[in-house]
User: Fold these one by one.
Assistant:
Number 1:
Amino acid sequence: MLCAKVDTSQVLLAISHLGFSLSEEEQLLLSAIEGFTADSRQASPSIAFLALQGVSRHGREFIEQAKALGTVLIIEDSSESDADTNSKQMLITSTPADKQVLHLSVVNLAGKLSSFFATLYPQLDGFKQIVAVTGTNGKTSVASFYAQLAASIIGKAASIGTLGTLTYDNDGEERCVQEAENTTPERVSLLNQLAWLAEQGYCYVAIEASSHGIEQGRLTGLPIDTAIFTNLSQDHLDYHGSMQAYGAAKRALLNNTHIQNVIVNFDDPESALWQQSLQSQQRLSGFTLLPNAAKDSLSSCMQRVFSVSNTQYLSDGLYFSLFESAQAYSIHLGLIGDFNIANYLAAIAAFRAASVDMEAIALASPRLKGAKGRMEIMASHHAQVIVDFAHTPDALKQALQASRKHTKGSLWVVFGCGGNRDKEKRPLMGSIAVQFADKVILTQDNSRFEKPEDIVEDVLSGIAEGETKDQSAAAGKVISILDRCEAVKYALSSAQVGDVVLIAGKGHENYLDIQGKKITYDERAFVQQLAEEYI
Ligand SMILES: CC(=O)N[C@H]1[C@@H](OP(=O)(O)OP(=O)(O)OC[C@H]2O[C@@H](n3ccc(=O)[nH]c3=O)[C@H](O)[C@@H]2O)O[C@H](CO)[C@@H](O)[C@@H]1O[C@H](C)C(=O)N[C@@H](C)C(=O)N[C@H](CCC(=O)O)C(=O)O
Ligand SMILES: Nc1ncnc2c1ncn2[C@@H]1O[C@H](COP(=O)(O)OP(=O)(O)OP(=O)(O)O)[C@@H](O)[C@H]1O
């Protein structure tokens, strides 16, 4: 658990702000406290437990567990009970025997949580910029680009999201300081992580804001000053019910009154709704990849407009002219795909909102790397090898289309589909692969409890359909190599000068889930090692 150590005086002050006055005995008891958690499993003699309402359960169900782990303070949110006033009780536990625990019940603790943490950790006030990135695709990439650029220009930065909590320093090192359980961490964990980051001097932070996270209040009251919206496409309808509700959940990010700067993808129709939802203190900036966007009319309603022209897709990445309003800059990015230009524009728009110099941004940009396992260029010599997380039909299509633009020779794809999950996507992915790649190598992904050969058969059924439509295109270009290592090795050893090999599905993951066992398989490391030999 990432957590900055609290001062006893701050703990006592924060509790007094909740409306409690404590006896000397109670104050002495609380002098052992070094931090707070909302997860009973992390409670300990030095970690107090906050029992909060969740989506399906209340944290109070876990109070006994926190006590058994020796916590000395429990603060329970009592909003939905009959209580309309706070209460305080000193308890004596049986396990551990005769230990004192102070139990406070607070009406609307959730609503007071941010100010409670602001008192515990005054450093939460010291951030230079906290950016929340939301959208169906691109959150991880934008957060990573933001943190990499900030570290390179300013010295230290961090990102929080699907890849965990990553710190970046100007030595170019990226360190994972906390593994991720969710894309957007639970609120208390997030507050703890931010307090730790601020204490360590990481004052520029990008947080991935999932629609679930926003709706469940994981970001409520956080000192976020900049919001980025990347795009909206179909996803998570099981949770949100409709696209309208899904879009609205994302836009609810704007209800955070700390947010001053809002950056939208002007090419996504949803951005019009973002514009309508702005609060009075929020200023809008945006970016567009469309060559004929009505930039003058955009400029009239936006603080800054970012656009590009003359994009060239070369084997070492992208070259283009970047415009901030009328001012032009020449940019080189070692990245693949137009969507990564959009992700880059989103990240730099955030910096410009924080008044970071555009010349410094342009200078740092060629050093930018793809987010771990997201269209990441692993090798680029006579051929180019890309590792990407795409594991849905649409993502595979996008990744292949993006790779094609950088391909002078043949485009290879190595991929498989997961077992015991959505079977319908298998033939679709097969059909897309044969349509958009020149050489298709089918292999296993997380086959779970299914036989890899059965999954490959399902994928092949989509390829067979494609074949009847365009037999000559499909003929002889598909092979199955079930062992993923062998499949990757075959592609890398066969690729010729000017070819691009896209290895899709695993991205940053470092295992293969086979028959209920997670077998160690770090595709990025494996590819890097092979590339030295073959590429
Ligand atoms: C449906 C859903 O979103 N549930 C989320 C929700 O669970 P919940 O409120 O029901 O929490 P709970 O686990 O029942 O616990 C209730 C309370 O008891 C506490 N507790 C719980 C267990 C325990 O042993 N001890 C304990 O103290 C919890 O800390 C919490 O305060 O709050 C938890 C803490 O924030 C989340 O971990 C959990 O995410 C579940 C695991 C999940 O899978 N969520 C997915 C849908 C999700 O959020 N995905 C998005 C990314 C989507 C994408 O873009 O791909 C994400 O941000 O990860
Ligand atoms: N701006 C974008 N628009 C469309 N597709 C994108 C964009 N950025 C990335 N992608 C594609 O989506 C995949 C996931 O990208 P990324 O991880 O940055 O998004 P995300 O929103 O964090 O999604 P996830 O939560 O699944 O990680 C990438 O591998 C890439 O193929």
Number 2:
Amino acid sequence: MEILMSNWSKVVKSVPENYIFPPDKRPGKHVFPVVNDVPVIDLENAQGQNRADIIQQILSASQEFGFFQTKLSYGDKPTRYREVVGEYSVEARKFLLRMLDLISEGLGLKPGYFNGELSKIQLLSVNHHIPCPNPSLTLGMPEHTDPNLITMLHQCSVPGLQVFHKGQWMNVDPTTDSLIVIPGLQLKVISNGKFCSPIHRVMTHSEESRTTIGTFLIPSNDVVIEPAKDYAADDPVYRGFTYKEFFSTFTGSNCVAETALGCFKNNTK
Ligand SMILES: O=C(O)CCC(=O)C(=O)O
Ligand SMILES: [Fe+2]
């Protein structure tokens, strides 16, 4: 009989060979430190008196760290999956557009700069990783940088997310009452390098399965991405490109961000 993937971990006692990562990409048995300085930004009063302060916190977090967290607040819980996912997606989009408004204000861009084509496409991705007999040999998700504009990550209580921070891999605490915001590579380009887009990966867990929800805002294929004119007029680090052009270069560079971005850099004097 076929073994359901969800029951796999009860039956499979060692990591199948085709899941084992090459030695230099494996996490090994290293004990990773917890990154305990992921900035937490409270969006309470972002429409009021705390706005300037919140924007400043977002800019500093994105320049110095990459990730940041915001506290989560839930509405009612509808019972049907389609409704739940529909409502979740609408709320996730509102949240990310609100975040982008704060970011555009912080970069000195006009309100609504990221609305429209730059954030046209929304992707919801649910990751479910079953327990793994030997987490040292493999990864739930290999190291990568999100190629889109901005990502909202909703973790569960099982650890797994790691960020490459201060020259080493570090665990991100699995908080269920806050959301992780990850600036994507397009935000790095539009902000002319002011925002960094952090490298991250996902470890597996030996006993528990892990489910996370990612919401990605993605530019439409033909929109031109470039350092914002009113922001980086004199010294744009990157030339303009369409998202389609970027994405094919990115996948053609084995999804290595620096290689892909290198193809769009202006010559420096
Ligand atoms: O599941 C996670 O914690 C991270 C997922 C992720 O990085 C992604 O989907 O791009
Ligand atoms: Fe990611």
